[in-house]
Amino acid sequence: MRICAFMKGRDSMNELTNIFKTLSDETRLRIMMLLYQDELCVCEISGILNVPQPTVSKGLSKLRDLNLVVDTRKEKFVYYKLRADHDLLNSILSDILNSIGQYPQLQDDQRNIATKWQYSESAGLISKSFTL
Fold first, then answer.
1. H or E, element range at 83
2. Per-residue model confidence as pLDDT tens digits over 6-47
3. What are phi and psi for residue 38, nearest 5 degrees?
4. Where are the alpha helices (DSSP H) in the chain?
5. What's the first-to-final CA gap in the chain, in angstroms?
6. pLDDT (0 to 100) of residue 13
7. What order do you get walking across the sheet with 40-41 strand by strand?
8. What is the pLDDT of residue 132?
9. Measured between alpha carbons, how far is residue 123 from residues 46, 49, 115, 118, 127 in Å?
10. For 59-79, what is the mean pLDDT?
11. How many of the other CB atoms lie within 10 Å of CB of 79?
């Protein structure tokens, strides 16, 4: 019984350290901040962040391997979103978003995603409301 408790505690600690290792990479952090707010495909993320698609794909692969994102195929595109049931990660990203004014790069990303939402609205798709 004691060994099971130790292993469970060890798994929790590994998950926690993996989250912070993942957040320590700028591109992955920027991707997660976008996915915290919207479901996006690789090409959208690449365009919003102005980062090459292979870099985005590599980051998403790491996030998927750590079970932090889920993907869904819609026609010819694969869309990614954060796991809604990952309370710790969602709490951390919410705190970052609440203090977005301290992070100019993340503010730029927010402006870019807002532009994407405006474009989506003009194309007849559902738009999201966003304010900085």
1. none
2. 445 567 788 889 899 999 999 999 999 999 999 999 999 999
3. -160, 155
4. 2-23, 26-37, 42-49, 53-65, 87-98, 104-122
5. 50
6. 87
7. 40-41, 77-82, 69-74
8. 38
9. 20, 21, 12, 9, 10
10. 93
11. 16
Give the number of other Cβ atoms within 10 Å of residue 127's Cβ: 15
The whole-number pLDDT of residue 131 equals 39
Here the tokens at position 33 are 């901040």
Query: What is d(CA 101, CA 96) in angstroms, rounded to the nearest whole number?
Result: 9
Q: Are 31 and 42 in contact (CB under 8 A)?
A: no
**CB 80 within 8 Å of CB 34:** no
Structure tokens at 25: 């990479």
The amino acid occupying position 103 is Y
Please report, as a single letter, which amino acid is at residue 80.
Y
Count the alpha carbons within 13 Å of 60 in the hemisphere toward its beta carbon. Answer: 26
